[in-house]
Give the backbone structure.
Amino acid sequence: MDYRNFVGGQWLETTDSTPNVNPSDISDILGYAAKAGVDQLDQAIDAAHQAAPGWAASTPQQRFDVLDFVGTELLARKAELGRLLSREEGKTLPEGIGEVARAGQIFKFFAGEALRLAGDRLASVRPGIEVDVTRFPIGVVGLITPWNFPIAIPAWKIAPALCYGNAVILKPAELVPGCAHALIEILSRSGLPEGVVNLVMGRGSQIGPRLVESAKVKAISFTGSVPTGRGIAAACGQHLKKVQLEMGGKNPMVVLDDADLAIAVEASLNGAFFSTGQRCTASSRLVVTEGIHDRFVEALAERMQALKVGNALEDGVQMGPVVDERQLQQNLSYVDIAAKQGGKVQGGERLIRDTEGFYMAPALVSETDNAMRINTEEVFGPVASVIRVKDYEEALAVANDTEFGLSAGICTTSLKHASHFKANAEAGMVMVNLPTAGVDYHVPFGGTKGSSFGSREQGRYAAEFYTSVKTAYTLP
Ligand code: ADP
């Protein structure tokens, strides 16, 4: 399979390509992905620039029809595309199918939103004057996405971009061209005018900066690492360009003495290790009060060690491989650093399976303190650490003592502590008796502090980023 770039309604010829490797079985090459240079990117920017005014003038019905078509097809093909996703990225088949269904639901949600775009009409403070506040599209938007949610993240950026009348250039992560290609292929048959959606695959470091700096691209929505995000924000600042960033997390899960132990263990297992821990909302710091600490660690370690790690496509596998060798080495080195700094490590070793892949046992590092590197830097793998604290007050202080602020969880049966935590956790998303990861698609997603920048993604709040506001005064 050749994954080609899609520009101005055409699939482009490609001369340079990169193999798409299955992380569960490196002998399995899914296909070869085009590697665009700046010339193809420039073509895409021009195509989007030309198409933008036409789509901005489209009716709510046209937008609904396109988005609903894509949502319906994603949902109908979730088993097939979920398999592609799991083969390409390495999350388990149920996780892959679930993610494709999520992408379909997102398109359906924004199909409905296209019909509900409203403004405000207010009475002026001056007599006889009418005031209207309306939203309008911003033009061409550049969407830069990571590998860990290869179809859901492109979906939650593309669907609102189109819903609110913008033209799109998608630059997906190099490791997951298959899902981006499949999504754009569906969009290519959705009735969209040529040039409204463009796919440009290539090295982020080569074509990314040009996408960010082009005067024709009016906004950048980025999900990825902190250093890349900071660089993009700086460049957007220079060009006075709208920017939205979703980056890392070091999400705390607080477990109090009065927690239901089974709920706390289940939520922590899910939050820390599902999707191989490769979620920016993963529970990487488990902050546990001393009365429940030993029972919690013992029960969680037992559940963690029983997780079946293996080929993402195999029945019954609960944790797939790490996405690639570089990420695996990074995970192993963090486990090593944690052990050297005094952490007690269970699991965390490389695993051998029938097929050659990037397998790793999930790791639990107990007896850590919050200043250790394992607690200050994002690992982005199946590695969680445990920090023992005295009481709720110390737990809250430790939970907030991080440069990140994406998601924060608490397991407790105390209404008082749950309410206080919801109000005082420094995070964009707070979970009570639920994993820090796993969110709804119709409400805002995003964080505070070093995790996010700009307005929120998803739900109705997405309009803030993908539109601009006009205030009109009329004297009839
Ligand atoms: P990750 O560790 O998730 O790969 P990155 O921040 O490196 O995080 O990548 C996220 C996305 O940003 C990818 O699509 C990647 O190609 C892109 N990217 C990488 N470097 C740049 C850059 N300098 N400018 C714009 N995009 C970039």
In short: The first strand starts at residue 2 and ends at 3. The CA atoms of residues 133 and 471 lie 4 Å apart.
